[in-house]
Amino acid sequence: MQPRNMSMSGVVDLAAVKAAGEAKAKAEQARAEAARQGGGAPGAVPPSALVIDLDEAGFEDVLQLSAEVPVVIDFWSERAPSSKELTTLLERLAVEANGRYVLARVDVDASPLLVQQFGIQGIPAVFAVVAGQALPLFQGPTPEPQVRETLDQLVQIAEQRFGLTGLVVDSAAEGAQAATPAPPGPYDALLEAAMTALDSGDLPGAVQAYKNVLADDPGHPEAKLGLAQAELLTRVQGANPQAVRAAAAADPKDVAAQMAAADLDMAGGHLEDAFGRLVDTVRVTAGEDRDAVRVRLLELFEVVGAEDPRVVAARTALARVLF
């Protein structure tokens, strides 16, 4: 099912987005199926290889591994409950990623040289190593949506810049198939409620209905797309376009003004203008302001869908600014 009556026909072809998502899912399924044939495809690794413990002695091995697959390095400690919570989340996401990256856990109390080498000032702290190059990802407690977006971007950078497509995982190994939970859902009733709310102009109701789906299945593609669009429509509702654009033109570093103008660009179907505006704003800001703009840009990517070539180009531009 797809959101309808969104008044955003110039922004995104929903059928194309759904088709792209289905094509990606089929590709992932074929990849997993190839790994299961004959007890695992050549070079396939067991699921246990996706999450490893790293110490100083094994760092050279990680550098070599990063030439095949991005390695996410998680610095944690038993003394820091927030770091343990993030580690648990990262472990789950690494398994979901199915070989797109490997998670390496570093106990900071047992590996002081690695802490010094990466310049860790506090935990939790998460880095990535891609083709031997270290990249900072985030530090401190981080909400799951931001973690997911950052890791998705890391995978795209690794594929586009370095040609790293990850590892093939033998999902049949170690009883992984028996342990795989049944997919959540179905969500027809909730998605229908969201569409009904949109039809009646009840944007808060639509937002909540999509959030109800995502609370149980954070990766649900139709719910993510619908929520992003409903939230965009909520933000532009009642806006004065002339006043918004005048404020944005007056101060390129005014984060609120630039985000409001980008929302109007998106609602009007000017995707490249919206993406370019926010990438430029990321370039000229820092700290919390910069992070707020980056998060809004990622939200706008959701409105269109990750497979859209305009999103791919904008992600590459954002990566150049950030890294």
Task: Please outline what is shown here.
The protein is of the alpha/beta class. Helices cover 58% and strands 9% of the residues.
Summarize the structure in words:
Residues 40-156 form the Thioredoxin domain. This is Tetratricopeptide repeat protein. It holds the Pfam family TPR_20. This protein has 323 residues and is an alpha/beta fold. The chain has two domains: 47-173, 3-Layer(aba) Sandwich (Glutaredoxin); 184-322, Serine Threonine Protein Phosphatase 5, Tetratricopeptide repeat (Alpha Horseshoe), CATH 1.25.40. It has 14 helices and five strands. A five-stranded mixed beta sheet has the order 1-3-2-4-5, with helices on both faces. β2 (71-76), α3 (81-97) and β3 form a beta-alpha-beta unit. α9 packs across α13. The model is unreliable at 1-27 and 175-180 (pLDDT under 50).
From the spread of the alpha carbons, the general shape counts as globular
In percent, how much strand structure appears in the residues? 5-15%
Return the string of H and E elements: HEHEHEHEEHHHHHHHHHH
Number of helical segments with 4 or more residues? 14
Tally of distinct domains = 2
Classify the oligomer: single chain
Largest sheet: 5 strands, mixed
CATH fold type of the largest domain:
Serine Threonine Protein Phosphatase 5, Tetratricopeptide repeat
- Which strand order do you get reading across the main beta sheet? 1-3-2-4-5
Please, what is the average pLDDT? 81
Number of strands: 5
**What's the CATH C level of the largest domain?**
Mainly Alpha
In whole angstroms, how far apart are the ends? Answer: 38 Å
Structural category: alpha/beta
> What is the percent of helical residues?
55-70%
CATH architecture of the largest domain: Alpha Horseshoe
* Cα-based radius of gyration, to the nearest Å: 21 Å
Point out poorly predicted stretches. 1-27, 175-180
